[in-house]
Structure formats: structure tokens, C-alpha cells
Design a protein that fits this description.
Helices cover 49% and strands 12% of the residues. By secondary structure, it is of the alpha+beta class. The chain has one domain: Glutaredoxin (3-Layer(aba) Sandwich), CATH 3.40.30. Strands 1-3-2-4-5 form a 5-stranded mixed beta sheet. The termini are far apart. The model has no long low-confidence stretch (mean pLDDT 92).
């Protein structure tokens, strides 16, 4: 008698977005939770999501700089674990707000604050259950040429410059114009 192993589907970071599903502009960031510049960029992204509501969607990808920030890998795993209960964005913001306290025990407390109910959360973290998802993000970032974080991409194109509200807004406006030209060209065809 053969046993059928249950396959658990893991929600990957690449599939987690905030914003309107069919928004014309996708903003993607490679970053990590211990980095001060990433924390500042997170505040800018919140403003952008408000300002461009319905026009952009945002995707955060993990790029832990473990040589500098030893806890960034586990923090990324904690965010992926929270995503399994639909709590990625809650955990994402809590991790940035508590970037100086990202030890395993603190991550467990942060997960409760985010509304995560998984009783195995701590075990999953200790056992690296979501480590591959964070590693996949890191590999994709390296493949895309990411060296410094935060690194932003707008509709797949690398954003160059300091990720300020003004700079990212300008790049988003430009991307919106491109998508309008494409859609009006399609309508004429």
C-alpha cells in the first residue's frame, strides 16, 4: 500500500504583492529588514502606494546581506512564514519597525503582533523551512545584477538613483506614460 505524501504549497515572495492586481506599474524592491536604507525606502514605498493607488503594485524580495546583518536571513524567513497565513505585509512593516530586535525569540513575538497563529512558527524558523524561498530571492537579485540595497525595479527595469519619493515618483510617472502609449497603440491597431 503506497502512502500519498501531501504536498504543501508554499506562497513564494515573488507572488506576494500589495496594490491593485492589474495595476499598470509594478514596483519591485530587493532589500532586507536590518538595513537602515531599506527601512527608509519602506516609508517611501508606503507614500508611493498611497499616492499612486490603483496605478502601482509593490513586491518585496529578500536580499539579506548576511555578512553585515546576521539576522536578516531569519527575518526574511519569518516574513515568508507570515505570508503563509496572509500576513506578509503586517510582518514586513513590523520587522522594519523593530529592525534592531530580530533574534529568533523576537521574531516569534513579532509574528504574534502580526496576527500569525501558526503554532510551529518557531520550529519552522529554527529548522529553516522557508530558507529556500529567501535564497531564491537572493539568487534572482544576483542574477539581475543587484549588489547594493535597496534595489528597485519598475516594470522589470532597474531603477538607478537614490530611492527618494521624488525620484521614484518621476520613474513611475515615466513608466505610466509608456504603458499609456502601448495601450493607445494597441487600440489603434
Amino acid at each position: 500500500m503506497a502512502f500519498k505524501k501531501e504536498i504543501e504549497v508554499i506562497i513564494e515572495p515573488k507572488d506576494i504583492f500589495v496594490g491593485k492586481k492589474d495595476a499598470p506599474v509594478t514596483l519591485m524592491e530587493f532589500g532586507e529588514y536590518e538595513n537602515e536604507d531599506c527601512a527608509k525606502a519602506n516609508e517611501v514605498v508606503k507614500q508611493l502606494l498611497e499616492e499612486y493607488e490603483g496605478k502601482i503594485r509593490f513586491n518585496f524580495r529578500h536580499f539579506p546581506l548576511t555578512l553585515i546583518h546576521q539576522r536578516s536571513m531569519k527575518a526574511g524567513e519569518a516574513a515568508v512564514a507570515a505570508a503563509q497565513e496572509g500576513k506578509f505585509w503586517e510582518m514586513h512593516n513590523i520587522l522594519f519597525n523593530n529592525r534592531r530586535a530580530l533574534g529568533t525569540t523576537s521574531l516569534k513575538l513579532h509574528s504574534k503582533e502580526a496576527g500569525v497563529n501558526n503554532k510551529k512558527f518557531l520550529d519552522d524558523l529554527v529548522n529553516g523551512v522557508y530558507g529556500w524561498q529567501v535564497q531564491d530571492d537572493l539568487k534572482e537579485g544576483i542574477d539581475r545584477g543587484v549588489k547594493d540595497i535597496p534595489a528597485f525595479f519598475i516594470n522589470g527595469e532597474r531603477f538607478v538613483g537614490k530611492p527618494t519619493f521624488a525620484n521614484l515618483s518621476s520613474a513611475i510617472d515615466s513608466a505610466l506614460k509608456k504603458t499609456k502609449k502601448k495601450s493607445s497603440a494597441k487600440q489603434r491597431a
